[in-house]
From TrEMBL:
Keywords: Oxidoreductase
Gene3D superfamilies: NAD(P)-binding Rossmann-like Domain (3.40.50.720)
GO MF: oxidoreductase activity
InterPro entries the UniProt entry points to: KR_dom (IPR057326), NAD(P)-bd_dom_sf (IPR036291), Sc_DH/Rdtase_CS (IPR020904), SDR_fam (IPR002347)
Presence of keyword Oxidoreductase: yes
Segments forming domain Ketoreductase: 8-189
PROSITE patterns in UniProt: ADH_SHORT (PS00061)
Record's keyword annotation contains Oxidoreductase: yes
Assigned protein family: Belongs to the short-chain dehydrogenases/reductases (SDR) family.
Source organism, top-level taxon: Bacteria
Name assigned to this protein: Glucose 1-dehydrogenase
Amino acid sequence: MSDRLKGKVAIITGSSSGIGQAIAVRFAQEGATVVIDYRNHPEGADATKAQVEAAGGKAITVQADVSKLADTQNLVDQAWSQLGGCDILVNNAGVEKNAPFLEVTEADYDMVLDVNLKGAFFLTQAFVKRLAAAKLPGRVINISSVHEDMVFPNFTSYCCSKGGMRMMMRNLAVELGPLNITVNNIAPGAINTPINASLLADKPKLNALLANIPLGRLGKPEEVAGLALLLASEDGGYTTGSTFVVDGGLMRNYHEQ
């Protein structure tokens, strides 16, 4: 266990699996206390907590649906009441819905935008309000996607949410800079996580994707977590307003078949 985040408290949304879980464990290994957020899977949150504790760290779990403002407020309140504050926010929770544009329903659109963009927007607001009132610095790290910039046919609502997250990050970097709060995005490409389970099971589709990735493999959640650590630590203190792509070269080489 190192101490690059010693004494820091981090909220990580959607940290019961995948990238969020990897970030929670990595932050704990570096000395942070983590708030593990989950929506529907307490057993996943408990598994993350067990990994954090095995790494010598401390964690609490909080159930919160980030698409609900009361839940986002409670997530921040729990960090302050149970842990005495919060220094780092990782907006990781995300959903996607595969549908041709002509078949997208209002309910599906609302679900994707509410979780991916509205949730990150208002959770960041609640997080920053506490820091501003206490005159404390902070770090906001959004787990965006290569699709904040790259087309993804049949996932238009997802692309809208991530494109919105890109502009939210840029705006807030300027607006919150005077408060010594940095805001950055990490844009993963194809990462080996539960959200990609159907892709992993479809060998022809997977092989076609791998042919587009110069490094020839999917990324690991831990590789995203390493970049999140950089942005959360003192090494990232002068970095704000940027998107950092973690995609094995996919964006530079991608073309629709």
